[in-house]
Design goal:
It is an enzyme of class 2 (transferase). By secondary structure, the chain is an alpha/beta fold. It has 17 helices and 18 strands.
């Protein structure tokens, strides 16, 4: 089997074309404490709002998170929602030269209202008629010009009108002429419109509808349906996603592969299909065969469904998960950059989970650390540990520290059952702020834990936490355990 980490590294910077239905997903979070006096409906007191790319946009977000360069061909309306889509894609680093404004429709926007973990309502603002001929022509001309550097093409079909039968056919023919693989996330029952595509990625429900199958529960039933689809549609390979059951790969050459899920926990399957097709495209760009690409995508899907909402899978998350698989582990590494951490914290809080936060160097983890973290975890639903990075530790502890580098320390802390996420923080030069205040301000955990002999007025973090309505909990440390003592004992000395 090919080296999957190497495949992802090889794919970094590759250009992947994404054509399809762009959407703006809006999540409005709040609390319900009363029923309206006007009618028997709950009143949502709005606390926060979050916007992200949906539909083909989620494919774009996943490609960017994996380190690739998506070329986006889609439409928006001439409206504020369309500008929001463009701004998000610019911030992600996606190429938006292929985005065309269609005056005949608004930007598709789906708005979800949530009270804690309860989904109250979804509203859709959209028009789904087929593209006007002039816009379809303009989009295809842009696609033709951009094909030279493209490693693969993803058609993300959500049935909103962008991928007309004519445009799909033109794209596949043009791709074939340049030997560029085409991957399709399909919509509807008629897959003959995708004839000539190399890969399609239906979920189980979509595969059942396309083959008029009443039941697709077993591997044998999935295989039979996929073979039927291959014969009737002229497609090269079916990659069927099966939610918590993993995925199946069946191609016209006789390959049959059933992969169990890599997920430790399944919170939300929304957006996992976008992660799958983006990861397969990335793997192919890195030189993967279909088996290796599918295994890589299955690992990425396992990460995606362990999150809440349409959150992309980042390259470092995938690399860490692959390291766990290669060493026989099953736990996805919780080390996250601040952006990924912020997204996950908001999802946890939207579920109604209480998020705790603590920090430290944790240079040589000992019983005192483990006991402290276990106790903190008992007071929250999810625990984040902010770990001083190596330069920060040197500033605090001196030039001979840390004993273990930040990656080793993060791996050990992250392996503890009490810890759900690890983030790095700290100053890089002496005299700069070496507290986790900036991280706390960004993540806004519900409760901040601090161990040791402190009072609340001695903690700069406390003012920030109390400022947004959070809690501060002071906790004692177990006597007789310290990293300094361990180092001194190892050197045959007694710590002062």
């Amino acid at each position: 089997m090919q080296d999957q980490q190497k495949l992802i590294k090889n794919a970094t910077g590759a250009k992947i074309m994404v054509v399809g239905d762009m959407m703006l997903d809006t999540f409005i979070y709040g609390d319900v404490e009363r029923i309206s006096p006007e009618s028997p409906v709950p009143v949502l007191a709005i606390k926060s709002e979050e916007r992200m790319l949906g539909g083909a946009g989620n494919v774009v977000a996943n490609l960017c998170a994996l380190g690739l360069k998506p070329l986006t061909f889609c439409i928006t309306g001439n409206d504020a929602q369309g500008q929001a889509v463009l701004d998000i894609m610019k911030n992600l680093g996606a190429d938006i030269a292929g985005v065309v404004k269609d005056e005949s429709r608004p930007t598709t926007m789906k708005t979800r209202y949530l009270a804690r973990h309860q989904h109250l309502l979804r509203t859709d603002y959209e028009r789904t008629h087929a593209l006007p001929i002039d816009i379809e022509t303009a989009i295809f001309k842009g696609i033709e010009k951009a094909l030279g550097d493209v490693k693969s093409i993803i058609l993300s079909d959500y049935g909103k009108g962008v991928l007309t039968k004519t445009l799909i056919e033109k794209i596949i023919v043009a791709a074939k002429s340049k030997k560029i693989p085409v991957l399709v996330d399909p919509k509807g029952k008629d897959y003959s419109i995708y004839k000539g595509a190399d890969y399609v990625t239906p979920n189980r429900k979509e595969l059942a509808e396309a083959t008029a199958s009443s039941s697709l529960k077993s591997d044998a039933e999935i295989t039979a349906a996929a073979k039927s689809l291959l014969q009737s549609s002229g497609i090269g390979c079916v990659i069927a996603t099966r939610s918590e059951e993993g995925m199946s790969v069946i191609d016209a050459k006789g390959t049959i592969l059933h992969l169990p899920t890599q997920a430790r926990e399944v919170f939300d399957v929304a957006g996992a299909g976008d992660t799958v097709i983006a990861t397969i495209a990335a793997a192919l760009a890195g030189g993967a065969d279909i088996e290796s690409a599918a295994r890589l995508a299955n690992t990425a899907a396992g990460i995606a469904v362990s999150k809440v909402g349409t959150t992309p899978v980042y390259q470092n998350e995938l690399m860490d998960a692959l390291s766990n698989v290669q060493t026989g582990g099953c736990r996805i590494s919780p080390l996250a950059d601040e952006k990924a951490a912020l997204e996950q914290v908001r999802k946890w809080q939207a579920q109604g989970l209480k998020v705790g936060f603590t920090n430290g160097c944790f240079d040589i983890v000992h019983k005192g650390h483990v006991t402290y973290l276990d106790e903190a975890r008992r007071h929250c639903d999810r625990l984040i540990v902010a770990l001083n990075h190596d330069k920060s530790v040197k500033i605090l502890k001196g030039p001979t520290r840390p004993i273990n580098d930040e990656q080793a320390r993060a791996a050990v802390i992250g392996a503890l059952a009490s810890v759900d996420m690890v983030v790095l923080f700290g100053a890089t030069v002496a005299g700069a702020d070496n507290t986790p205040c900036a991280v706390i301000e960004s993540l806004r955990p519900d409760i901040f834990f601090k161990g040791g002999d402190y009072t609340i007025d001695q903690l700069p973090e406390a003012k920030i936490v109390h400022g947004y309505g959070g809690e501060v909990a002071l906790m004692g440390l177990q006597d007789g355990y310290s990293t300094t003592n361990i180092i001194a004992k190892s050197a045959g000395k007694t710590a002062a």
